[in-house]
Design goal:
The complex is a heterodimer of chains A (204) and B (417). Chain A is built from 3 helices and 9 strands. By secondary structure, chain A is of the alpha/beta class. Chain A has a 5-stranded mixed beta sheet. In chain A, strands 6-7 form a two-stranded parallel ribbon. Chain A starts with a helix and ends in a 15-residue tail after the last strand. Chain B is 49% helix and 11% strand. Chain B contains 18 helices and 8 strands. In chain B, the strands form 3 sheets. Chain B has a 3-stranded antiparallel beta sheet with strand order 1-2-3. Chain B starts with 6 loop residues before the first strand and ends with a helix. Classes of the chains: A alpha/beta (204), B mainly alpha (417). Chains A and B meet through strand 3, strand 4 and helix 3 of A and helix 1, helix 9, helix 14, strand 6 and strand 7 of B.
Chain lengths: 204, 417
């Protein structure tokens, strides 16, 4: 892995490479994604795209438990880490690459803006990106330019919204039932209320 | 002259050969597939969203329900991700137990695959034989976790409890004679390890039986040989892992290449295919069962000789014993905090992957320092495999689609998540 790290630093600069928990993460500008991926595939032998997913950083570092008690020991006190890790861009697209021939992994991360969550598709680099990009579009609402078939994949036909976004409620927005009188299935606003059993607490 | 048009056929979602809820839109010219468009998501339960709203330990149960025929392997990837972030030491005995159950799970999965694949292609009897052995392994699951399928047995820091000293036995009933009962309980006299050891001894004979039924069977070969050929390069492009990749001749196995738990201390071989067709993948999986059997054998030997703790004693993550809890103030607080709030992970992200029976199963975990994950992405092997359906089925006959679904070892729990 050290060899790979040196080569990556040489090619992409030290600032863009993070080494944490024994894994390498490369930050890439969203405009350069296809160019970088081609380079990684052809010169760094990353022959497989293992995974591609979207991440929504909207509520990163926010907790649900408000208290001013102490932040040490066993009490309920907590200290928010603030949003220091929060990024200016709301969404990230994360690529997990694997090199079967060289036996190493790399994570590539690219941030996209909320106003325009568009990134170039890497389907021409790795064929497996096809469905992964459809999934990221479906669940996160990230658009992939030049993708030939960007349809929803996991949610229902005619679904509205992107469920893995942090502002999409856990309970959903509509519920479905069969209406006897109309003789068909109808959608209505959800009748249940959101319920948090265990609050989100951030401790150092 | 009559106009000839392609015909669009809807396959599933309620079809016995669709392995659950796969809906395929097939565009066919006569009986030849021109295009296959799988519609998935009919079993989407939002596991990733649910996991975001629960403390870490409460999502282990969801992992079982992803690929519901290889439950403990899913758990393994998840707890490994948490352990990496906490830099938690897992006792060696727990590692061996995990490896043993991973391999039991692999046999469980492959038996399920063999039975249903056979059933799809028209070999009825193999299903019954495969499920006969499967039942014994399911009993091991039950003995160790109390649940036949959804075990929730692996925990961050180890496993829930040590292997039981006594294997549960069948009870007397009006429907069994004493003699029958004795025969049924014959291999259940000792501990769970004795029961597994007995299974490991007998299992090669069962594999031989499946072998005799299928490997040289003319119909089986007619249905599998040269169906769904994928070249090694194409397999990598398509994100194939596991037996699907090895069937194409790539010797890639995370247990060997990026060893986790104690796989680097065990001896086993990686079978690879030659042509990359369905028959090769069948042979690869059959050999994997033999290798798994061999791994379990080694684990049993080790576990017999090395008793010890199976759970980390870091009580921020693992609960203290009941006795300690009743006696000691600090243990009581730990217990209370653990079960009400859970534990916090340091901020950061980690991807942990294991060699699941179907391929590479990975958990991408992002934590912002809270007691719940910020984002969990489940990398399911079947998702990438099913995405290649169109490419694999194109140009084949309608009946071959069923073979391809079978050879991909599709389970919808993990694909739809």
């Amino acid at each position: 892995m050290e060899d790979l790290k040196e080569q990556l630093i040489e090619a992409f600069g030290e600032d863009n490479l993070v080494d944490a928990f024994g894994e390498l993460t490369l930050r890439v500008d969203s405009d350069d994604i296809v160019k970088t991926c081609l380079k990684l595939r052809d010169f760094f032998f990353f022959d497989t795209l293992i995974d591609l997913c979207g991440v929504d950083y909207l509520t990163y570092g926010q907790s649900e438990w408000e208290s001013d008690a102490s932040s040490s020991g066993f009490s309920r006190g907590r200290e928010t880490q603030g949003n220091e890790d929060r990024h200016e861009m709301r969404f990230a697209v994360v690529y997990h690459l694997l090199s079967v021939s060289k036996n190493y992994r790399l994570r590539v991360k690219s941030y996209v803006d909320e106003a325009e969550p568009i990134i170039k598709s890497v389907t021409d680099v790795w064929a497996s990106a096809d469905w992964y990009e459809r999934e990221a579009f479906d669940l996160m609402g990230i658009l992939f330019e030049n993708h030939t078939d960007l349809r929803r994949i996991l949610t229902d036909y005619g679904f509205v919204g992107h469920p893995l976004r942090k502002d999409f409620p856990m309970i959903g927005e509509v519920e479905m039932r069969y209406d006897e009188e109309l003789g068909r299935v109808v959608y209505e606003p959800v009748s249940i209320e959101p319920n948090i059993n265990v609050p989100r607490v951030i401790r150092k | 002259m009559a106009e000839i048009r392609n015909y669009t056929l809807n396959f599933g979602p309620q079809h016995p050969a669709a392995h659950g809820v796969l809906r395929l839109i097939l565009e066919i010219d006569g009986e030849v597939i021109e295009r296959a468009d799988p519609h998935i998501g009919l079993l989407h339960r939002g596991t990733e969203k649910l996991a975001e709203s629960k403390p870490y330990n409460q999502s282990i149960g969801y992992m079982d329900r992803l690929d519901y025929v290889s439950m403990m392997c899913n758990e393994h990837a998840y707890v490994m991700a948490i352990e990496t972030m906490l830099e938690l030491e897992v006792p060696e005995r727990a590692q061996y137990i995990r490896v043993m159950f991973d391999e039991i799970t692999r046999i469980l999965n492959h038996l399920m695959w063999l039975g249903t694949h056979g059933l799809d292609v028209g070999a009825m009897s193999i299903f019954l034989y495969a499920f006969r052995e499967r039942e014994k392994l399911i009993d091991c699951y039950e003995a160790v976790s109390g649940s036949r399928m959804h075990a929730t047995y692996y925990r961050p820091g180890g496993v829930y409890r040590d292997l039981p000293d006594k294997m549960p036995q069948y009870l007397k009933s009006d429907f069994r004679t004493t003699k029958e009962l004795e025969a049924m309980n014959k291999n259940r006299q000792g501990s769970l390890l004795d029961f597994i050891a007995d299974f490991v001894k007998e299992f090669p004979k069962s594999i031989k039986q499946y072998d005799d039924l299928l490997t040289d069977n003319r119909i089986w070969k007619q249905r599998l040989v040269n169906i769904g050929i994928v070249s090694a390069n194409r397999a990598k492009q398509l994100g194939f892992t596991g037996p699907m990749l090895r069937g194409s001749g790539v010797a890639w196995d995370l247990r060997k290449n990026q060893p986790y738990a104690v796989y680097d201390r065990l001896e086993f071989d990686i079978p690879v295919g030659v042509t990359g067709d369905s028959y090769d993948r069948y042979l690869v999986r059959m050999e994997e069962m033999r290798q798994s059997n061999h791994i379990i054998e080694q684990c049993i030997d080790w576990l017999r000789q090395n008793p010890g703790s199976v759970m980390s004693d870091d009580h921020k993550v693992s609960p203290p014993s009941r006795v300690e809890m009743k006696d000691d103030m600090e243990s009581l607080i730990h217990h209370f905090k653990l079960f009400t709030e859970g534990y916090c992970l340091p901020a950061g992200e980690v991807y942990s992957a294991i060699e699941h029976p179907k391929g590479e199963f990975g958990i991408y975990l992002i934590s912002d320092g809270a007691n719940k994950p910020y984002r969990v992405k489940i990398r399911a092997p079947g998702f990438a495999h099913l995405a290649a359906m169109d490419e694999m089925a194109r140009g084949h006959m309608l009946s071959d689609v069923v073979t391809i679904i079978g050879t991909q070892d599709i389970v919808f729990g993990e694909i739809d998540r």
